[in-house]
Amino acid sequence: MKIAVFSDTHGVTRPMLDAVSRCCPDAVFHLGDHDRDTVALLRRFPEIPLYNVAGNCDFSSLAPNVLTVSLGPVKAFLTHGHLYHVDYGRVDSLVYAAQEAGCQLALFGHTHIPYHEDVGGVKVVNPGTAGKGRSLTWALLTICENGGIAVEMKDLDPHI
After folding, report:
1. pLDDT higher for 159 or 73?
2. Secondary structure class of 73 (helix, strand, coil)
3. Tens of pLDDT, residues 81-106
4. What is the rounded radius of gyration, in angstroms, for the C-alpha atoms of the chain?
5. 0.90 cut: is pTM over it?
6. For residues 160 and 158, what is the distance between their CA atoms, to the nearest angstrom?
7. Domain interval for residue 126
8. Residue 58 belongs to a domain with what CATH number?
9. Residue 95 backbone zone (phi > 0: left; psi -120 to 50: alpha; other: beta)
10. Strand segments (E) across the chain
């Protein structure tokens, strides 16, 4: 199972749409800032399941702050990250929340910095920013039938 993970698009959707078109994922996750950018995904790829959470810039959003999603043998914890203070370079409260929810995977954005590491039995992934910054990135996750999780950080072309 392939999952495309984006965060912090901030109104810039074209590079994200191109990446989804190229990789043909089984699902897409958007981790906030601007969750309204998911409308472009829904219009262009109505057949691909889309899961999204609200970020700190998503005022009056109807999206939840936290979402758990089952991906075969893996359960994922999705959040933007600002409520777990990830902007201070620590992921301990995020990992604890994922563990409490029974998740093996914790996905967050907010910092605009790509990151992935195994912490306390949880694979923690930040796809970086897909909209604003010097380097635009996203994450491609591969979930294996045995529960293995592979993470590939990918660059986006901002000029598309």
Report:
1. 73
2. coil
3. 999 999 888 999 999 999 999 999 99
4. 14
5. yes
6. 6
7. 2-155
8. 3.60.21.10
9. alpha
10. 2-6, 27-30, 50-52, 66-71, 74-79, 105-107, 115-119, 122-126, 137-143, 149-155
